[in-house]
Each structure stands twice: as structure tokens, then as C-alpha cells.
């Protein structure tokens, strides 16, 4: 079986597709506040783009210098079909890209899959090396403080415990300037997202996901809290 074939072959529901579209728009809006306006020539690298929803958002907005690192061959083929410039096949934490070669590195729902804190620090160090001066690193990950046992139960490869504080400390340790962070609950934020999180937790308290395709457990995971954080390489 190829790397993460179970994810590549998964099928979303209509509700899942709607939530994904809204979530991607929210993520882009948060990130776009820190991007140069009207500069679609940015050199962008996404690590583990999955089915390419975030890549498609950028491509649809006119960004063309969009490269990805995706070890799954099925997903690489899909990503090339939607128009990414290059799709490379390797595993992080080390990056194969040249020094100072990208303006933005994106890693969504992947940082937590690194094997341990040492690998997490190595990846951030590598991202800093690859970023051009003033370049941005954008991380989206589950918040262990909210997920608790679900953080490890939902995916056997969740090995790097991710929280805002730990991530910001790693940024500072590797000389990346923390710019902003926020919490998100699927496509919602603020008090609405917080209340939805509590509601979904209360109605799914009985499920612990013994089946890997159990919809109530997937619903629970969808509304658990994630965080988005942006760091900048000094100019």
C-alpha cells in the first residue's frame, strides 16, 4: 500500500464538501492578511496538500508558482491535474528545496504527523532555510489541549503533540518571528465555533471511533479545535 492510500481513496459527503470549501476560504482569508497584495508571482510550497483543496484556492486566484511535496502517487496525479507546477515525492522533516527559494510554505494537518519534537524542530529549521528573507511559514494543526485522547486515537501517525504554545516556542527557537495565531473549528471561529465544538462534543460523547469509517466520530473530529499560526523569516 502506498503512503496514506486510505486517505487518498476516502470519499467525502456533501456536508463534508461544503464544510471543506468554507474551511479553505477561512484559512485563505487568515493567511492572505499577511501576503503582499496583488502579488500572484509568489513562490509557494505546500507540504502534504492531500486532495489539493488549498492549492486549488490559490490557483483559482491566479497564483501559478505553486509547488507541492506529496508522497502518495494517487494524490500527486490529482494535484498535477489541477495545475500545480511541480509535485515532488519525499517525506519531511528534511526539505529538498534550495536555500531562500520560497516566499511561503504551507503545512496543513501534517505537522502533527512528524515522529517527535526533534523532527518538528528539524522541519521548522528546514523551512527557515528554504524561505526567502521575509518569507512566511503557515501551520494548521489539531490543538492537543482540546482534542485530548482523540488526538492520538483518531490517527495512529499522530506523534508530534501540537499546541499553539509549543509551536510558537519552536518558532522562537529556530529564529522565526511569530506573527499571528487563531483557533478554528471546522469553518467557524470565535464564540460560534466554540459553542459548536461544545455541542458536537456533547452529542458524540459516546463514540470513540472503533470503526475507521464511523460517521459520528468523524463529525466529532471535524469540530474539534485546530489552530493556525504564521511565522516570518527575518529580512
Adjacency order of strands in the biggest sheet: 3-2-1-4-5-7-6
Average pLDDT works out at 93
Low-confidence parts lasting 5 or more residues at pLDDT below 50? none
Rg over C-alpha atoms, rounded to the nearest angstrom = 17 Å
Count of discrete alpha- or pi-helical segments spanning 4 or more residues:
10
CATH superfamily: Vaccinia Virus protein VP39
Which architecture per CATH?
A: 3-Layer(aba) Sandwich
Strand element count: 7
CATH domain class name: Alpha Beta
CATH topology: Rossmann fold
Q: Fraction of residues in helices?
A: 40-55%
Order of helices and strands: HHEHEHEEHEHHHEHHE
Give me the secondary-structure category: alpha/beta
Distance between the termini: 43 Å
- The share of residues in extended strands comes to 15-25%
**What count of structural domains?**
1
Largest sheet: 7 strands, mixed
Question: Per the principal axes of the C-alpha atoms, what is the gross shape?
Answer: globular
Amino acid at each position: 500500500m502506498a503512503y496514506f492510500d486510505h486517505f487518498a481513496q476516502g470519499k467525502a459527503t456533501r456536508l463534508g464538501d461544503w464544510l471543506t470549501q468554507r474551511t479553505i476560504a477561512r484559512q485563505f482569508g487568515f493567511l492572505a492578511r499577511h501576503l503582499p497584495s496583488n502579488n500572484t508571482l509568489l513562490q509557494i510550497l505546500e507540504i502534504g496538500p492531500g486532495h489539493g483543496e488549498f492549492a486549488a484556492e490559490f490557483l483559482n486566484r491566479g497564483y501559478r508558482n505553486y509547488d507541492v511535496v506529496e508522497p502518495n502517487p494517487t494524490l500527486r496525479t490529482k494535484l498535477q491535474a489541477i495545475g500545480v507546477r511541480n509535485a515532488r515525492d519525499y517525506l519531511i522533516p528534511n526539505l529538498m528545496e534550495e536555500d531562500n527559494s520560497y516566499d511561503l510554505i504551507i503545512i496543513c494537518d501534517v505537522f502533527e504527523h512528524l515522529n517527535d519534537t526533534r523532527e518538528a524542530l528539524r522541519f521548522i529549521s528546514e523551512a527557515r532555510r528554504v524561505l526567502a528573507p521575509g518569507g512566511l511559514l503557515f501551520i494548521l494543526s489539531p490543538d492537543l489541549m482540546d482534542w485530548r485522547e482523540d488526538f492520538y486515537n483518531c490517527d495512529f501517525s499522530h506523534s508530534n503533540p501540537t499546541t499553539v504554545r509549543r509551536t510558537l516556542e519552536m518558532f522562537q527557537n529556530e529564529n522565526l518571528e511569530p506573527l499571528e495565531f487563531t483557533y478554528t473549528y471546522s469553518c467557524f471561529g470565535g464564540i460560534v465555533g466554540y459553542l459548536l465544538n461544545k455541542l458536537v462534543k456533547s452529542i458524540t460523547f459516546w463514540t470513540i471511533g472503533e470503526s475507521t469509517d464511523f460517521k459520528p466520530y468523524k463529525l466529532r473530529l471535524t469540530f474539534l479545535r485546530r489552530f493556525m499560526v504564521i511565522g516570518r523569516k527575518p529580512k
